[in-house]
Amino acid sequence: MGLLFLVLLLSLSCVLGLPFYNGFYYSHGPHGRTLSDGYGEGLFSGVKLVVETTEESLFSHRGATVTLPCHYHYEPALASPRHVRVKWWRSSENGSPEQDVLVAIGPRHRSFGDYQGRVQLRQDTQQEVSLELRDLRLEDSGRYRCEVTDGLEDQSGLVELELRGVVFPYQSSKGRYQLNFHEAQQACREQDAVVASFEQLFRAWEEGLDWCNAGWLQDASVQYPIALPRQPCGGLGLAPGVRSYGQRHRRLHRYDVFCFAAALKGWVYYLEHPEKLTLQEAREACLEDGTQIATVGQLFAAWKFRGLDRCDAGWLADGSARYPIVHPRPNCGPPEPGVRTFGFPDPHARYGVYCYRQH
């Protein structure tokens, strides 16, 4: 009779597509996987698997190495250890698919995609399964999930990783509201940046960012931050905040974009030159100095994190002319710190140039 029941249970698990394990099969519910004995009753083993991560966001910078903490234990503690499977993945955000990062079973490890060669499991202490991530990139910001499976159950914890950076509005050289979502992504990439997330824009607004032009964000929504309410920017009656146009068509609708640039690995500097330069001469002058002309993202990062303060307008790689002010003073623009812009002058106009030197 017992054998007949086992055969029937195996058949049922195959029909339902449920993985069978050791006389039981798993079902997936709103709270993860539940081990069932075939009668709809949860298996109570008397031992609970607990996964612990950090509740605080981790902050790091591009090019750094960071460890995402993850530990597990059993309640009550086990007399002998169990073999576990560990999986790290980057959680889905803004409609993007989940990204597998690393899977480990005993001494066997496998990493995936852009994480290959940059991740390893840290197991310095018993029941530690932290993730070490090296050479951080702009795209590495996000929420990472650590899942531990011991064959009977699985539990997971979340770790949020943020790169220190600066959000800046960006407009096409063709003028206001000229970028669809895909062009906005490309524009940010060309500035050594990525399209900002809502969380990054919101944090920038908390720090005082005030901009009346609407721009794309990472989730294809269009928003803009207002610190000082005024009539042309949603009206005087609205409180300060991040205004939203909601989701927009990625190909058909056109706006500006908010980009996010991380802290620099190199240096941006104003090239001391005996005379002002055209755009082409500016590019060549940086090359002659053993560097390259800086991007807008690099200039913003140097202003934000390196305290670059210069009252001289200079060419940048996109053909715009700008200058960074940390300490406002007469004849250097508005009374607030910021990166001032002259827009996109005629390429034959003459300005200085900001160059970028890698480490």
From TrEMBL:
UniProt-listed PROSITE patterns: IG_LIKE, LINK_1, LINK_2
In this UniProt entry, which cysteines form S-S bonds? Answer: 212-233, 286-355, 311-332
Compartments, as annotated in UniProt: Secreted
Return the Pfam families for the record: V-set (PF07686), Xlink (PF00193)
Give UniProt keywords alphabetically.
Answer: Disulfide bond, Repeat, Secreted, Signal
Q: Does the keyword Secreted apply?
A: yes
Transmembrane ranges?
none
What InterPro entries has UniProt attached to this entry?
Answer: C-type_lectin-like/link_sf, CTDL_fold, Hyaluronan_bind_Proteoglycan, Ig-like_dom, Ig-like_dom_sf, Ig-like_fold, Ig_sub, Ig_V-set
Top-rank taxon of the source lineage equals: Eukaryota
Q: Which organism is it from?
A: Microtus ochrogaster (Prairie vole)
Q: Where is the Link domain?
A: 166-261, 266-357
Signal sequence residues: 1-17
**Keyword Plastid attributed:** no
Which Gene3D superfamilies does the entry mention? Immunoglobulins (2.60.40.10), Mannose-Binding Protein A, subunit A (3.10.100.10)
CDD domains linked: Ig_LP_like, Link_domain_HAPLN_module_1, Link_domain_HAPLN_module_2
Q: Where is the Ig-like domain?
A: 48-164
The opening ranks of the lineage are:
Eukaryota, Metazoa, Chordata, Craniata, Vertebrata
The name under which this protein is listed is Hyaluronan and proteoglycan link protein 3
